[in-house]
Amino acid sequence: MPVPWFLLSLALGRNPVVLSLERVVGPQDTARCSPGLSCHLWDGDVLCLPGSLVSAPGPVLVPTRLQTELVLRCHEETDCDLCVRVAVHLAVQGYWEDPEDEEKFRRAADPELEEPRNASLQAHIVLSFQAYPTAHCVLLEVQVPAALVQPGQSVGSVVFDCFEAALGAEVQIWSYTQPRYQKELNLTQQLPALPWLNVSADGEDVRLVLDVSEEQRFGLSLYWNQVQGPIKPWWHSNLTGPQTITLNHTDLVPCLCIQVWPLEPDSVRTSICPFREDPRAHRNLWRAARLQLLPPLGWRLDAPCSLPAEATLCWQPLDGGPCLSLVPPLPRENVTVNKVLEFPLLKGHPNVCVQVSTWEKLQLQECLWADSLGPRKDDMLLVETRGPQDNGSLCALEPSGCTPLLSRASTRAARLGEQLLQDVQSGQCLQLWDNDLGALWACPMDKYIHQRWALVWLACLLLAAVLFLLLLLKMSRVKGWLRLLKENIRAGAAAGSRAALLLYSADDASFERLVGSLASALCQLPLRVAVDLWSRRDLSAQGALAWFHAQRRQTLQEGGVVVLLFSPGAVALCREWLQDATSAPRAHDPHDAFAASLSCVLPDFLQGRAPGRYVGAYFDKLLPADAVPALFRSVPVFSLPSQLPDFLGTLQGSAAPRPRRLAERAEQVSRALQPALDSCFRPPGAPGTGRGMGPEAGDRT
């Protein structure tokens, strides 16, 4: 097919050496030899059949090297085809087996003889040329004079003009002798393509840049070049002038090819497939592949390109887990895309699935139950293996392997081995596959599951009757057990909650009652609250300072927090301790833990160890906000009950609930504190202002 001259100029570039390609005039092929040799080109094509290797009877002429050159075969001045010239370099190979034969050959070629004979070495050289989709072979006859015959020496070359090929084509050339004395030579060459078609990356996308003149009209086609089946067009358009076309990276597949040609009569079409090795294209191909199951026993893999994959059948158990391969006994099959294939089964089963995988990993899986056979069943798949003397064996396919039915394994199939064997013999199992080597059986397991559950229910009823009888006979003891169980549950809940040590100054009975109400409310959060109000017995036995030291150490070791409740009395004690060391503090109640604790609390604040360990609080109706000494404001100080949500959230730390739940708990604590707060503001002598502290003031140790 003639190629316009301007296209060849574009393809071969502007290099003067390239543009000075030799021109071959005329349509006929020719052959010529190097000096000293004679050659002849046989007319017509020959069969491209190398034949088998044979032993050389003596010295023979064989090709040793192939060399190519691009030339132009021109019919007119501007109407030329790109052509490949091939030079075959020849050498003599082998030796005479009989010295007498060599001597006769030498005498025949001796020029001093009165009548020398024209002795020569002759060879038939085949050149095979392939450029998809065409193939072409020629036969060259070459003769070498006896004087040039030296074993192992090169004798010259023969040149063939020429094999026509298209721009951008990949050509393969072979050379061998007839008969063939050695392995054929081969050479692969990529011919230049049209440079005005350029494929480049644009981020994740791909750009096709066609750089031609504004007047040039050309066709552009994108197609899927499928090995299995015909070319499948995807997009086609006739364009004019320079164009830039952007392809989405998700459209790339390995077999996506680009074809470009000028819109002129008999124009050459240039095709390239640039995405064969692109990892993105291979990922997109598997994403586009679809595995379809076609009733009753057919399946098809739809994909735009051929896939190097294998298909196998597997068995998917009802309880999930991996799909168990049925290879062997069933064989693997190479996948042919876009073609309906049949299962090698007698009957379908909802637990049978198709897997498509490469050598790297499983790519696709589809099960029959997803289509028309209903949900999966709790069936056991039995594999029957048949021997040469009709002696067979049965095993059950399980995740751990194929378990023989009559074995002592601890699996479900081994426990029910005899029953499953009877089911196969009695025809209760469905035969899925059968041949001379074995068979596959699907045996229902529902009846065995029902029997097992019946025994479980019977055992439960018997146990419930025994427990009811014990309850009737030993009701009092059962009550004691329930009481202990309840206490253990409470103790466990308390052990999982955060500890809080409450320190306060016992200003009067009403304030102590308010502290007791706060401590009781905090216990419901839950928090494990320690307060001297509930530990009078330990306080008397150990002393206030020792009791505080023990409680503080335990609270901080458990990640708890020490709460300082400020009142007018507490503020006065703090200021007294903060005075000059020369003034001696006054005597205090020996049971006052707050006064005793200041000797340890103040150093923590003075040395910066308080944050994270201490929290301050005061009742906004009993103490103004600015009355709390500045030293104690290095830790959070909350006003109660107005800042109860923040106070409770700080006490509970990481275990604090969500804001909505925290607000509900703060409301509960506020309601619990309200009666005690009201009693603190009643006039002196009014009912309810006595010294008694109620149930919370008792000794809880």
Automatic annotation (TrEMBL):
Location of the region described as Disordered in the Swiss-Prot/TrEMBL record: 677-701
Any single Gene Ontology cellular-component annotation: plasma membrane
GO biological process, one term: inflammatory response
Keywords: Cell membrane, Disulfide bond, Glycoprotein, Inflammatory response, Membrane, Receptor, Signal, Transmembrane, Transmembrane helix
GO molecular function, one term: interleukin-17 receptor activity
Subcellular localization: Cell membrane
Residues spanning the membrane: 453-473
Signal peptide range in chain numbering: 1-20
Pfam family, one: IL17_R_N
Bilayer topology: Single-pass type I membrane protein
Span of domain SEFIR: 497-649
Subunit structure: Homodimer; disulfide-linked. Heterodimer with IL17RA. Heterodimerization with IL17RA is independent of the cytoplasmic tail. Associates with non-glycosylated IL17RA constitutively. Binding of IL17A and IL17F induces association with glycosylated IL17RA. Forms complexes with 2:1 binding stoichiometry: two receptor chains for one interleukin molecule. IL17A homodimer preferentially drives the formation of IL17RA-IL17RC heterodimeric receptor complex, whereas IL17F homodimer forms predominantly complexes with IL17RC homodimer.
Protein name from the UniProt record: Interleukin-17 receptor C
Source organism of the structure: Bos indicus x Bos taurus
